[in-house]
């Protein structure tokens, strides 16, 4: 990795374009760079894994069995019996072990095979791989890379999930695209045109950007250019009107940040107080990493009027779902175009996105497949 | 291309067989020869494209956006935004331009990018490819090959679509096979056995054939060998009975002609007057050209009794649909067999079809993929 | 093939493990070894092929048309017209011939083309391949290998299908896995854990094994370790209780035998009399042999009380179907794991299964694809 090159840029878009660099010929295609496994990745919602049960999940084609014993924390094993490779997650949790559904081989928390019902204890075969595992904020995380690094790699801050002043919504669609498309989608707020039916006419303005060795950040303000403000938006931010009732520019600042490998979106009001915070991870599902599962936590500041947040919650949920559905559809189209072309033909003119692409390439898994 | 070798052959089938040549070993497999793009191909029905809208279509794997502005004719662009490759046909028509649904990049009739909403006009990136485009007879055509040839390549005559003495029916199924199977299917009228449930027992007789540099033609008469004549056929041709009420041989002549790349079927009555005319094009959909979309225009002479044609139209429609469904099923089986075998094992004994195969090979795209 | 190495082993499991050999590195992956075609394989149930009809079936990707003329036995042709390769099984049976549905070419019992309706008899093209064909015990068999061997290769004994003291049930699911997984599944009776919901808790005990050049056999007894005995099992074997009503070990002996390429399961009671007999063949469907169709005949001794077998038959059917459904699901998971891994990672500790694997590898088709 190159040494830290932190810098701050405001400037107009046109100036930025002059500095924007296209990915030059010979550079590796970003969509062929795997996500770096030496980080903590969510692989399931806590509510999906009942007490005394096991479920199967995956990271980049690796099958993973999550096990929640009646006593003790969740643990994560390679979801493949050492015997005949069938998923352990189809098996039975027994004490601190999981027993394969087929011939009953049992594996403990350490992955070691501790019982083959028809074999002497002295003959037990080797066990299966384990993954470091943590449960936080309603999510189950594993560390798919080098286990020796798990303790030293920082665990992410999960939006405002632990802050009672906020109410947090979970969302987690599966998206048929490379994780990099999702980072670029959110980072480039010039795509408000996509959401014109949900949001009305909005013009974004880049206020500034930051970048460093492991992050890219962009700050935006938004101005409404049409007259219609959607209900859900008004409920969160209030109406923006002047004394004559004309709508006014929104004064909130929206900050998008990819701090590898996570992405956040934070909204502060004109006084600098946070009113919304989103944290998201895009977890590769298939071995070719062209399918992802998003895990998102969206924390919204509770309004001063008690219970109002609960009343508006379903509206907010439907609104964000519709927005996300549009985003899902477009990034899947991008992946389909990449598949059809067999490569990345993008012509990016927005410097923030080019910085982000460089970040994702630099921090990703450099292994050539 | 070989120089023109026009000749006329009548003769019996058995004589013809003696002259029939199998495709010799070493010859290129006909199902790997792409359709020649230097012709006008229909890619949509006019009614599919509403005013002020854009739709996506394709030619041989190339995505194409058709745009119908409120004023001016239809135009055709590469259906792929220069920015992030998503389909322009998901976008919005604005004046003489189409605006990408994602970040709002706009492209004019020439394919040039004329606006990026968040970028200065001096910085506009390159645009997208265009296709010569014409709208005739309820069909939208493009010229997928070298645009410089578009003006000089003859535009096809579309059955009797412009002749008020005829009523024209459109049909356009998608067929999962190489376009060449469809040409061979129609040209070989010995396949009436396939339609025995729809047509009753019919025996075709080859009256003669013609061929030239860019066409193959065969003329047939038909004799009914069973007793049942279907209603739809009787409605078009009238009943064929002698004075004692016995059914008589049909005296119409059916001419099938592939004039590359189009195919026609014409029926003239015993006086030599045309009573039916079919024009069809088989347009490759996928890049491997193993899927086609047929566009057919079937013109039927209006009977002397006014409105009778409108009364019989639904019967005729159902009849031709059932016939075509049988043809679709069988040519898809041929493609499936080719796929399973990985090559063409056909043993053709009918000279007309061998001439047709040679024509399709000779006129097709000679590029080796 | 190595010369015959027949031996008999009883011994405990732990001793056996010491002699168990893993498939060593460099050995060919068992799941890439095709089934040996020089045997009789069932390809359809007799009831599927009505008089005067033809149906399509397949062996390892080879399409086969089975034809049952009104008079004379069933015959089997390559299911591909010599003309344009469409399935003959879509055609019409006419006397001792089948006529292709497309242009009406006709093929006799010998595979020879005996008529092209529009061609002189002197010009008839070659015909299609035939397969030796036999109909026995409600099954239609073909010999897909070298036809010269068909008469000398022994025809299998089909359970007790011809014995009126037994009632025989047919079952024949399609299973998306290599045939070898199915042999191993049945041979290894330590997989009773898989059927714990159907069978209750059962512990198998290996009584002994035999093996020879073309077979592997294992004999088991079973002890119930839980209290619940399923109804269907009690109906076949009776309840096993001592004088105080406590359940007793089952004293029947279950013998599983793979005599290449078939597999049998036989149950004898404590007096050595057969009470149940299963015969099964696993027939590769796709060319890569990763899909199979099982044909099973399950013969159950009729109880002394007349008609009792008919009363319990549906219960028995549902019971065996549920058991088989669990087996189908698990062997398909094994195939999925193999596909995902791209190879066999199994660690087998049970000598019987390792002997079986060696048998299947040795007797299989040694051709490298």
UniProtKB/TrEMBL annotation, chains A, B, C:
Residues 40-142 form the Rieske domain. It comes from the Bacteria. Pfam families: Rieske, VanA_C. GO terms for molecular function: 2 iron, 2 sulfur cluster binding; metal ion binding; oxidoreductase activity. The keyword Oxidoreductase applies. Gene3D superfamilies: Naphthalene 1,2-dioxygenase Alpha Subunit, Chain A, domain 1, Rieske [2Fe-2S] iron-sulphur domain. Keywords: 2Fe-2S, Iron, Iron-sulfur, Metal-binding, Oxidoreductase. PANTHER family: 3-KETOSTEROID-9-ALPHA-MONOOXYGENASE, OXYGENASE COMPONENT, IRON-SULFUR DOMAIN CONTAINING PROTEIN. This is Putative Ubiquinol-cytochrome c reductase.
């Amino acid at each position: 990795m190159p040494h830290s090159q932190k810098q701050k840029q405001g400037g107009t878009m046109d100036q930025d374009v002059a500095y924007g660099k296209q990915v030059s010929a010979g550079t590796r295609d970003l969509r062929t760079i795997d996500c770096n496994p030496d980080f903590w990745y969510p692989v399931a919602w806590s509510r999906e894994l009942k007490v005394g049960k096991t479920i199967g999940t995956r990271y980049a084609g690796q099958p993973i069995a999550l096990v929640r014993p009646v006593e003790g924390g969740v643990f994560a094993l390679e979801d493949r019996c050492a015997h005949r490779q069938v998923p352990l997650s189809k098996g039975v949790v027994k004490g601190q072990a999981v027993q394969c559904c087929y011939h009953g081989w049992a594996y403990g928390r350490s992955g070691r095979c501790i019982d083959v019902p028809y074999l002497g204890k002295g003959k037990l075969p080797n066990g299966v791989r384990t993954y470091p595992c943590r449960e936080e904020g309603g999510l189950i995380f594993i560390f798919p890379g080098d286990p020796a690094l798990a303790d030293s790699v920082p665990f992410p801050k999960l939006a405002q999930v632990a802050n009672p002043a906020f109410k947090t919504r979970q969302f987690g669609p599966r998206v048929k695209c490379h994780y990099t498309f999702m980072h670029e989608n959110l980072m480039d707020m010039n795509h408000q045109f996509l959401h014109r039916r949900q949001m009305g006419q909005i013009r974004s303005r880049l206020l500034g950007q930051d970048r460093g060795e492991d992050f890219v950040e962009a700050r935006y303000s938004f101005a409404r250019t049409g007259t219609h403000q959607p209900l859900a938006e008004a409920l969160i931010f209030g109406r923006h009107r002047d004394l004559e009732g004309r709508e006014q520019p929104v004064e909130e600042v929206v900050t998008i940040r990819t701090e590898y490998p996570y992405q956040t979106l934070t909204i502060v009001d004109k006084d600098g107080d946070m009113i919304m915070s989103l944290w998201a991870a895009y977890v590769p599902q298939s071995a070719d990493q062209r399918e992802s599962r998003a895990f998102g936590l969206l924390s919204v500041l509770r309004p001063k009027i008690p219970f109002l947040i609960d009343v508006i919650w379903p509206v907010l949920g439907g609104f964000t779902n519709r927005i996300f559905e549009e985003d899902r559809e477009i990034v899947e189209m991008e992946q389909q175009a990449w598949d059809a072309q067999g490569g990345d033909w993008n012509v990016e003119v927005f410097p923030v996105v080019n910085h982000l692409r460089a970040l994702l390439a630099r921090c990703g898994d450099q292994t050539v497949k």
